[in-house]
Recover the amino acids of this structure.
């Protein structure tokens, strides 16, 4: 019978199940027994939830765009009514804007810990670039509409409006998060918990924004070079 | 253990106002109960619809005057229209799959017990958790609205007309829970049940997807980040593994349905042609507004979600069953690691088998063979689970409580329903069986009834923890036996009907003389269904009565080992009254040789460690007082 007890390994044997190894009262199943109060690593692990949560959320967003892209590829191959659009030139501007915005946001994220408002300028720049991207996308829509190309005009235009629209909606969410980051009160330096949390929030938002950047580059290639 | 005293300072107070405490609550326990109440309400709607379907199938010409009053167009003179029946099929399936089988096991019990079982104070993102429930509730309200918009009750008629509803001989859209295009994609020209109600159906499912995604995000993050000290992954109860895998499945499959739903809605409202091919003929007119779409594309997108959804429904039941079998067999789960890997294997394989729903859609025989082989290979982890359950029961001194009976019933139904999956998974056998009663018989047994048995087991098992009182055992056993025999009486004859060739989704068979010999069987199934449904009144009564009048239960009434049994019944707002438990061992240490009791809590230190920490107290020792 004793062989059945698959789960009675003593605590001293670490690495049974993997998982983060940091200790502390909130310690992610860490085998470490002697907690050291709410120390740094504990705060770190509590704040980690924002980064983990963001990765998980991105996985689900990725799945939705994977589904839409596979629909795109299948639909392109399924009938002969597929008429590729000519690229509205302005999407090149969109692409440039969003790439730059990723850079400015990365600078902001790294400067968060520095003196009070150093990062705020960069955040604001990112917001402006983000709004610029969305406006540029809207102009691309306007250009198509002026040519008489609407959502239902042909399958490629349907996918163009749909994919840019879905991406734009997600980017709006990113803008809201950026607005939150730039409007929130700076974390007091003497409170390590608040500072760690603030950094984790900024990391998560930055991750999201970079993802939206890469997602747009992917959609750009899909829409105008795979067809 | 001195670290714990620091923690005691950090206690979260429960909110005082009624609204924040019970309505817009951030507490995962309240949200879990809200989900369960939602499922209990939704299942009533779904069950009523199934009874109406049975009435129509067994006694086709009979007039039910109450129906005539409620639905003057759907059931003129009390006799149900075929369209009325088809909309019942659609709404029964949709409500049961989404709002019962997905909400209760995961949103309900998962929400309530996952944080407690891993020793956390709450979910990682309580606000998202609250939003997840309320978004799901909005989805439910929208699907109910679909009933009235398409339907034709006297009150709703005006509402329906105001919203541009269809002619209204139905109680909702027509299209089955799969909503196959092009029927679902072209709108009113396709006939009754294709009006505004179908739009609401799609919107409701899209909303539901969002709610589920918020939930899944929370489950995964909570499990990865919030486990208490000592709760290594391989020390988690199997329930947690099941909820985690379910959350991963939901996270990766619901976005695909959401994407497909958006495309379908665009086809219906904007006039795109993702799924609608050109030249469709309706009656005497040709549809000229669409060209070149692919109906099969919708099937691919739908079933890429649809198959994992089956496991989303049943995996939590598997987790609960493993947990409960071990507790009442007073033995550790046989092959814990194998159980964990089997859950993952089932979840992983579940993503690569969607094509077996589409064997007759005209796919390449080579793809069909690939899907078939992958499908049959799911039998391996399923068999691992089944044999491990039997191994857990083998030679045990079983305590036959109501939750244990339902857990054993789950194993029985999982085997009985799963074995026909091996039939349907093979292309050559699926071709004649497809769209016959064999298919509903198979999936009702395995994903419908087995999952529900898992939830019944969970309800009877955890009720003492949730409300501090037992459910009535005598009523529980009555409920078990009638339901257990009843569901077999309903679904075993359906296999026979399917083998004879009776097609599913037909409103009546009076014109099909060669099926006349089956009619007594159809009536038998209906009577069994009605009895089984009425028996559920016993369950509902037991549930409500026991909340107020049930026998008082202590902290650990079943002498179980996991963390939820180390706290009070019901647990305080922050689950462990400010002192997070520390875990020293695996989840199922029953009958440990040399131990004083026949069960050892996860919080009990090893003998050598007791000597070091003796006298300090803490959660690990509370259990001795019960």
């Amino acid at each position: 019978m004793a062989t059945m007890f698959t789960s009675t390994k003593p605590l001293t044997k670490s690495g049974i199940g993997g998982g983060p190894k940091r200790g502390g009262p909130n310690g992610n199943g860490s085998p470490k027994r002697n907690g050291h109060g709410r120390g740094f690593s504990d705060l770190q692990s509590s704040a980690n939830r924002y980064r983990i949560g963001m990765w998980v959320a991105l996985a689900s967003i990725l799945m939705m765009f994977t589904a839409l892209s596979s629909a795109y590829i299948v639909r392109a191959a399924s009938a002969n009514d597929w008429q590729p659009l000519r690229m509205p030139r302005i999407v090149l501007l969109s692409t440039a804007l969003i790439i730059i915005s990723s850079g400015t946001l990365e600078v902001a994220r790294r400067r968060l810990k520095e003196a009070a408002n150093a990062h705020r300028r960069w955040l604001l720049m990112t917001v402006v670039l983000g709004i610029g991207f969305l406006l540029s996308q809207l102009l691309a829509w306007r250009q198509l509409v002026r040519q008489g190309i609407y959502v239902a005009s042909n399958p490629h235009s349907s996918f163009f409006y749909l994919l840019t629209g879905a991406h734009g909606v997600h980017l709006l969410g990113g803008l809201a998060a950026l607005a939150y980051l730039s409007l929130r009160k700076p974390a007091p330096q003497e409170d390590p918990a608040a500072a760690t949390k603030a950094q984790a929030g900024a990391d998560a938002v930055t991750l999201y924004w970079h993802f939206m950047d890469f997602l747009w580059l992917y959609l750009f290639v899909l829409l105008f070079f795979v067809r | 253990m001195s670290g714990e005293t620091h923690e005691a300072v950090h206690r979260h107070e429960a909110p005082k106002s009624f609204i924040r405490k019970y309505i817009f609550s951030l507490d995962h326990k309240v949200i879990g109960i809200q989900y369960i109440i939602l499922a209990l309400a939704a299942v009533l709607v779904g069950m009523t619809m199934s009874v109406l379907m049975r009435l129509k199938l067994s006694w086709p010409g009979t007039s039910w005057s109450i129906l005539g009053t409620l639905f003057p167009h759907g059931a003129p003179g009390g006799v149900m229209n075929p369209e009325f029946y088809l909309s019942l099929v659609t709404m029964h399936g949709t409500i049961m799959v989404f709002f019962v089988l997905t909400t209760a096991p995961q949103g309900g019990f998962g929400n309530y017990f996952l944080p407690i079982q891993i020793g956390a104070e709450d979910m990682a993102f309580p606000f998202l958790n609250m939003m997840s429930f309320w978004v799901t509730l909005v989805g439910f309200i929208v699907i109910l609205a679909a009933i009235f918009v398409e339907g034709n009750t006297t009150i709703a008629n005006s509402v329906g007309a105001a919203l541009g509803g269809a002619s209204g001989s139905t109680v909702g859209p027509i299209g089955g829970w799969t909503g196959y295009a092009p029927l679902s994609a072209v709108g009113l020209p396709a006939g009754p049940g294709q009006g505004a109600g179908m739009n609401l159906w799609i919107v409701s499912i899209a909303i539901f997807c969002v709610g589920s995604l918020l939930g899944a995000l929370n489950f995964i993050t909570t499990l990865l980040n919030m486990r208490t000290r000592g709760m290594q992954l391989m020390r988690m109860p199997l329930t947690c593994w099941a909820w985690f895998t379910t959350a991963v499945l939901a996270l990766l499959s619901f976005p695909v349905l959401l994407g497909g739903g958006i495309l379908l809605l665009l086809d219906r409202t904007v006039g795109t042609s993702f799924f609608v091919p050109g030249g469709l003929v309706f009656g005497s007119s040709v549809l000229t507004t669409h060209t070149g779409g692919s109906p099969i594309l919708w099937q691919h997108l739908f079933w890429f979600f649809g198959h994992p959804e089956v496991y989303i429904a049943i995996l939590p039941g598997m987790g609960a069953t493993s947990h409960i079998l071990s507790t009442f067999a007073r033995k550790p789960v046989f092959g814990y690691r194998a159980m964990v890997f089997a859950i993952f294997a089932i979840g992983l394989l579940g993503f690569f088998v969607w094509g077996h729903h589409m064997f007759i859609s005209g796919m390449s025989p080579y793809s069909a063979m690939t899907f078939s082989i992958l499908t049959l290979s799911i039998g391996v982890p399923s068999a691992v689970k089944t044999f491990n359950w039997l191994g857990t029961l083998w030679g045990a001194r079983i305590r036959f409580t109501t939750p244990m009976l339902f857990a054993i019933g789950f194993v029985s139904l999982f085997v009985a329903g799963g074995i026909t999956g091996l039939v349907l998974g093979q292309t050559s056998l699926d071709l004649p069986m497809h769209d016959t009663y064999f298919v509903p018989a198979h999936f009702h047994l395995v994903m419908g009834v087995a999952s529900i048995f898992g939830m019944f087991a969970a309800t009877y098992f955890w009720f003492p923890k949730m409300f501090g009182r037992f459910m009535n055992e005598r009523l529980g056993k009555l409920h078990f036996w009638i339901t257990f025999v009843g569901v077999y009486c309903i679904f075993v004859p359906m296999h026979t009907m399917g083998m004879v060739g009776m097609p599913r989704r037909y409103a009546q068979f009076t014109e099909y003389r060669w099926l006349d010999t089956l009619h007594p069987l159809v009536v038998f199934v209906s009577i069994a269904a009605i009895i089984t449904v009425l028996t559920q009144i016993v369950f509902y009564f037991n549930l409500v009565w026991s909340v107020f009048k049930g026998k008082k239960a202590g902290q650990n009434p079943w002498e179980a080992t996991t963390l939820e049994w180390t706290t009070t019944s019901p647990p305080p707002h922050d689950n462990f009254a400010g002192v997070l438990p520390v875990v020293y061992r695996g989840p199922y240490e029953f009958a440990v040789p040399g131990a004083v009791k026949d069960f050892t809590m996860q919080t009990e230190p090893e003998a050598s460690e007791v000597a070091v920490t003796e006298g300090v107290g803490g959660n690990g020792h509370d259990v001795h007082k019960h």
Q: What stands out?
A: Chain B has three domains: 30-281, 345-553, 554-626. Residues 257 and 302 of chain B are 6 Å apart (CA to CA). Residues 295-329 of chain B form the longest helix (35 residues). The longest strand of chain B covers residues 281-282.
